[in-house]
Specification:
Layout lengths: L5 E4 L15 H13 L4 E5 L4 H14 L4 E7 L5 H9 L4 E5 L11 H17 L4 E5 L7 H14 L3 E5 L7 H14 L4 E5 L7 H10 L4 E4 L13 H10 L11 H12 L16 E2 L24 E2 L3
Parallel strand pairs: 1-2, 1-8, 2-3, 3-4, 4-5, 5-6, 6-7, 7-8, 9-10
Helix pairs in contact: 1-9, 4-5, 6-7
Amino acid sequence: MTPRVTLRDATLREGLDTPHVSFSAAQKLRIARMLAQAGVAEAEVVAPSRVAQDVEFARTLREEGIALRTSGLIYSHGENCAYEVELASASLDHVDLLMPVSLERPPEDRDTKLRMLDDAIAHATDLHMEVGAGFPHSLQCDPEFLLEISAVAIARGARRIVVYDTNGGGDPFAVAALIRTLRERQPQVEIFFHSHNDLGLATANAWAAVNAGADGLDVTVNGLGDRAGNASLEQVAMVLHLKGYQTGIHLDELAALSRAVADESGVVVSKLSPVVGEYALWHKSPSHLRKPGLFEAFDPALVRTDRTVDGS
């Protein structure tokens, strides 16, 4: 049986943390329709800093009949957590309650973190919501505390655990070790991984997480996101396809989706960008045509494009 990985697209949430990027409601709808057309099953559309505003958009998505499962983030230690959970319960298919696991972010002691997360999940489950728990700074804390707080969340009713490499400082070996341990301790729960690209390792770390047992990954179109961005939908979808995983993503839609989001965001895609960049399938040596598979990681037909060869 071919293994399956869920790619949750966060372009409409994390992408808005990209400097100088903002989307109107009409732009969001256009992007959402293209995400659905490309085979994205779930979109993260609610940010913890703008829950009420984003929940309105989630409601619009539902009214428009756009075939995306919607999810969002709420801070479990926020003063408005209970109210925000109630707002989300009417419009979202899934919510992840966030609790930073670094002791350098409030609340600054373990017991308070455990109690507040437990209370928030209990409130969400009382409302019959599908709820998960997300842990910013997962690679910057005591791993045993991450395992402990995950166990508390799952015991209270969390159906998904999201591991965040918040500062992009993780590496594939550390990510794999952490995900593997969490998978062994909690075989019954969904594990998602959220990577940042500060060291250029977002795609590698995403693949390492899946290889170690993660069920899902957070991605954004063109890698949009805070600072150096996030794992790119195009790159991750291609890697997983080549490694034998099903994602439901239509690879032949990726180039058009990338161009559309570049136009809507104003953030230009590098010509050297893997998979969708102008130079990704451009060869200067005509000799490559004799055995193109020796020089290309994937068949250009997968992304509905042709290779370019100088001098041919």
